[in-house]
Amino acid sequence: MVTLFLSTAAGAQGPTQLKPGFNLFTKQQDIQLGQEAAAEIRKKVVIVKDPLLNAYVNMVGKRLAASREAKDSGFTFSFEVVADPTINAFALPGGPMFINTGLLKAVDNEAQLAGVMGHEMSHVILRHGTNQASKADLIQIPLALAGQLTDSDTLMGQLSQLGIGLGAESVLLKFSRADESQADIMGSHLMAEAGYDPDELARFFEKIKSQDTADAIAFLSDHPNPGDRSRAIKVEALRLPVQDYGYQTGEFRNMKKALAAVHQPPPKAHQE
Ligand SMILES: [Zn+2]
Fold first, then answer.
1. pLDDT per position as a tens digit, 43-97
2. Phi then psi dihedrals of residue 149, to 5 deg
């Protein structure tokens, strides 16, 4: 009865419309900041060069990037694999996305991966990183953004001086629960349009929640549960136009095989 009510009410309303919030940065500055931050990240992590793994995440990523909301954002997305057993992925302002081998290992099917990647892509489209930086109430930010940068001075460098770096607590990568809930909802749109069942994203969150491992805890710390997120995704899925899910690249098993051959460094926490 409850389900019936939900499906009727939700279906009639159509997909939830989401727009980026308050932002002091221009879209061009999102892109610049993301490029600079990505260069920093590449120095700190081990990027996996395996051609099959890279082709795979690019296949899934490009399908998501072809969805309406992703295209309308005007951002160009890129996808790289990081050798890190932590179950995680993250995207920087303007589009660079990094996908940990730990996430590739944890997903049960391609739709779950597409769901997490769609979630990350939604943080970019909704400009959550620079929205959070804009809300940080730092009077210097407008000055930093308006200033002319010299060759040796990057936007990332200027923001780092204001305390907005790439550290674990960075506002560029650590989102609010409201942001998480938006990224879940838009992520479900992107994956659905790409042919993946949004229920799989809900299922993946359930799976992570039921695990009590350090990896799972890290994932939930970066993606704080806005409360009942699996249910929220399922309700949103009912608002979407009816379509056939079940798209697959056909490379999921090969991806898992290639993954087994990647040497993964121990988790960061254990290195210190
Ligand atoms: Zn998130």
1. 999 999 999 999 999 999 999 999 999 999 999 999 999 999 889 999 999 999 9
2. -90, 135
Instruction: Tell how far the Cα of 247 is from the centroid of ligand 1, in angstroms.
Output: 24
Contact 112, 204 (CB under 8 A): yes
Q: Say how far apart CA 221 and CA 99 lie, in whole Å.
A: 16
229 Cα–ligand 1 center, Å: 12
Concatenated DSSP letters of 8-41: HHHHHH-SPP------SS-HHHHHHHHHHHHHHH
Neighbour tally for 244: CB within 10 Å = 7
> What is the 219 CA–ligand 1 centroid distance (Å)?
9
Tell me which residue has tokens 């799972």: 216
Output the CA 149–ligand 1 centroid distance in Å: 30
Q: What's the CA gap between 227 and 231, in Å, rounded?
A: 9
- Tell me the CA–centroid distance for residue 177 and ligand 1, in Å: 9
**Three-state secondary structure along 118-132?**
HHHHHHHHCCHHHHH
